[in-house]
Design goal:
It contains 14 helices and twelve strands. It is an alpha/beta fold. The strands form two sheets. It has a six-stranded parallel β-sheet with strand order 2-1-3-4-5-6, sandwiched between helices. A six-stranded parallel β-sheet has the order 9-8-7-10-11-12, sandwiched between helices.
């Protein structure tokens, strides 16, 4: 089959969505299908350094120019897959084309509706989120990455249940436990002492990742007996000014370390050597670092909230992300038994090692047969 993947605008910097589209393209190609990725070109957006106009110039590329390219591309395709629900407004051009939209989370939509007051949305953002919901409502089929996200979508958009599925994410890199010798060597090159126990956090600076909360938890941990020397390694974007201020005010400069631009094998080494991976997110659509850490045998500490508990299963330690002192106490008690969760962590992560491509191919077959019942050609998976 000819499968057109609709990807994200490069200048938006949504690396996770770019990786998702690339992983889909590779998996579908390996399965024997023809694949193209169509995404808005950065045209007007090249001028986005003009003060105050960057966002609007990007909208010209995404909403003004790209629909013309998309209309041309869909003439080639048997099935179209919009890889990020943030582009769901393109479904209005796909009415006669078999198509699927992947919904990764409804956090921005819920924020626009006032359900998440800590993340206020401006009027323009509310308008865009309304367009996204309308696009999801029009979609032939929506695949949600977790049951929690599916529940949010059904509640907010009112889409008939038969048009919404749950397709779990798969690992986009073959993480596994790394031999201690190799992992220690990689840690040394990153400026870490492999003999020094450390906690790990992996995430970006979006509000829901609760990175300041991670620092608060570790600060509380350091006040407990015997844990003053425990280090924290934070992988992802550079610290925000607020995080740097907290580190300074709480004398954590020699405790916390930031690592940016970490390669997959180096991250695998960090997962394999960390005492625990802290992931106390306030909200998530899925929470892929949970699976990445577990598949390396690293014990995960995460929030007792969906979908984190859905993804981490019985192999995690659960805390309240809004209560750093309570979280620190739970972690302190669990530190001595962290290794006992190694095998159950790896076992739980196996649920997400593969299967995503096959599930999407089943969905493609379904939407293709719904749109083209008169055609005799079989969709070969």
């Amino acid at each position: 089959m000819r499968i057109l993947l609709v990807g994200n605008y490069e200048s938006d910097g949504q690396e996770s969505m770019q990786r998702f589209a690339a992983f889909m393209a590779g998996g579908l190609t390996q399965a024997g299908h023809e694949v193209r990725i169509a995404k808005p070109r950065v045209w007007f957006g090249q001028l986005r350094t003009i003060t105050g106009l960057g966002k609007w110039l990007a909208y010209l590329d995404k909403l003004g120019l790209f629909p013309f390219a998309l209309k041309s591309e869909i003439q080639w395709a048997d099935v179209v897959h919009i890889c990020d629900h943030g582009n769901a407004f393109y479904t209005k051009y796909l009415r006669s084309v078999p198509h699927v939209v992947t919904c990764h989370d409804l956090l921005a939509v819920r924020s626009a509706l006032g359900e998440i007051p800590q993340n206020p949305i401006r009027w323009s953002g509310k308008k865009i989120q309304r367009m996204i919901v309308d696009g999801l409502t029009r979609a032939q089929h929506v695949a949600c990455v977790s049951d929690a996200t599916r529940s949010d979508l059904l509640r907010i958009a009112g889409i008939p249940e038969q048009r919404v599925s749950r397709v779990y994410n798969s690992l986009t890199y073959p993480y596994s436990p790394m031999q201690e010798c190799e992992a220690s060597s990689r840690l040394c090159r990153m400026g870490l002492d492999p003999r020094q126990p450390f906690l790990l956090h992996v995430g970006c600076n979006f509000w829901y990742k609760n990175r300041l909360g991670v620092l608060r938890i570790v600060s509380a941990l350091r006040k407990l007996s015997g844990l003053q020397t425990l280090k924290l390694v934070m992988v992802g974007q550079p610290w925000t000014a607020q995080m740097r201020q907290f580190i300074c005010e709480n004398a954590m400069s020699d405790v916390a370390m930031e690592l940016t631009g970490v390669a997959n094998e180096d991250l695998r080494a960090l997962y394999s050597m960390a005492v625990m991976m802290l992931f106390p997110s306030l909200q998530e659509g899925f929470g892929l670092p949970i699976v990445e850490a577990q598949t390396c045998g690293c014990t995960v500490v995460t929030s007792k909230r969906p979908p984190m508990d859905e993804v981490a299963g019985d192999a995690a330690i659960y805390v309240d992300p809004d209560d750093p002192n309570s979280a620190a106490a739970i972690i302190s008690r669990a530190l001595s038994q962290a290794g006992e969760l190694r095998e159950s962590s790896i076992a739980n992560a196996e649920r997400f090692r593969a299967g995503m491509i096959e599930n999407y191919l089943s969905l493609y077959a379904r939407v293709w047969s719904e749109k083209t019942p008169h055609k005799s050609r079989e969709f070969h998976r």
